[in-house]
Write a structure and sequence with these properties.
about 325 residues; binds copper (II) ion; Immunoglobulin-like; disordered N terminus; alpha+beta; five-stranded mixed beta sheet; 8 helices; 12 strands
Length: about 325
């Protein structure tokens, strides 16, 4: 009979263990066990309390079972007493589970409670398969739109306003907070405060279609003064092409790409894809998939359907090498 899962062969164990090593090494940029914000710290604490509680109970039950099976007759009859069954079987779980439940409720309500009005509201919309990021002004209108990267001032409370107009996504930056769904027709809010400057990776945590696993982003927490400087630079229109190659790139862009992408300061005003006004200043290309440089821009433009099959951008494989280089250089120049 065929079994769905064959047991691991002895030589496969070390291989499986080795495969887990990169996961551990990668752990700190995207790990719920390495909290870098208040909200995540509460969740990590709750996990450890539950883990320790479960561990102690498991060990106790195992020891009692061993004693009941193999212990001397006196011990075995002590374990079999009526009081032991009522105490260990009913009272103990009631008390311990209630205590753990209360602890969990208290930390959950501390996470939801807003201690101060947020310094900043950022709306994040789950798209297929990328993130539209809008910094909201005081009146709720968009002061700045960008994509796939969220910068926040460290030490300040930030509120994420999470929406979707397509399917359900889930917004998760494990180092900063718990995950929360982005539901069409519904607004969810998430409070986050990063303890210190740092770069954290976020990931869609609800299956949302073919490229769900490649729907990632970065949160960059900066010292407040650096954040203000970044924000001021981002609200400026795009840089004008400095030389002939970049001019060619811009012309090609306005012909082939502007129906889907916006670049402020040019006639390109499409909204179907990410805003590219300062795309060269971001950390990644393709929603966290590739590092950000001229080479990966070129690769993305010509081969994005190989890199991220099914995504909503057509591949431009028919461009000449020269055209592709000009477009990629133009993207890179948009700092
Ligand atoms: Cu998603």
């Amino acid at each position: 009979m065929q079994r769905a899962f064959q047991p691991l062969m002895p030589f496969q164990f070390p291989v499986a263990l080795l495969a887990a090593v990169p996961l551990l090494a990668y752990g700190d940029a995207q790990s719920a066990l390495d909290p870098k914000g208040q909200n995540a710290a509460r969740i990590a604490e709750t996990s450890w309390v539950l883990f320790a509680g479960g561990g102690i109970i498991f060990a106790t039950v195992m020891i009692l079972s061993a004693a009941a099976l193999f212990g001397p007759a006196g011990l075995r009859s002590a374990i079999g007493r009526h009081a032991m069954i009522v105490g260990g079987g009913i009272l103990f779980p009631l008390v311990v589970l209630s205590a753990l439940l209360i602890h969990t409720f208290l930390s959950a309500s501390a996470i939801m409670r807003a201690d101060a009005p947020p310094a900043l509201r950022i709306q994040v919309a789950g798209e297929l398969w990328w993130w539209r990021v809008s910094y909201l002004g005081d009146n709720g209108s968009t002061a700045l739109e960008t994509a796939n990267e969220i910068r926040i001032p460290a030490g300040r409370p930030v509120e994420f306003v999470l929406i979707s107009d397509n399917v359900i996504h889930s917004f998760w930056v494990p180092n900063l907070a718990g995950k929360i769904d982005m539901i069409p027709g519904h607004v969810n809010r998430l409070r986050v405060r990063a303890d210190a400057p740092g770069v954290f990776r976020g990931q869609c945590a609800e299956y949302c279609g073919a490229q769900h696993a490649n729907m990632a982003f970065h949160v960059v927490a900066q010292a407040p003064a650096d954040y203000d400087a970044w924000f001021a630079a981002q609200t400026k229109p795009a840089q004008e092409p400095r030389d002939a190659v970049l001019q060619t790139g811009k012309r090609l862009f306005l012909n082939a790409c502007s129906q889907c992408h916006a670049i402020r300061g040019t006639p390109a005003a499409g909204t179907l894809g990410p805003d590219l006004t300062h795309v060269g200043s971001r950390l990644s290309v393709g929603a966290g998939m590739l590092p950000n440089n001229a080479g990966t821009f070129g690769g993305w433009i010509a081969g994005n359907q190989h890199i991220k099959p099914g995504n909503r951008m057509p591949a431009f494989g028919g461009l000449s090498g020269e055209e592709l280089r000009a477009l990629a250089a133009y993207m890179e120049s948009l700092q």
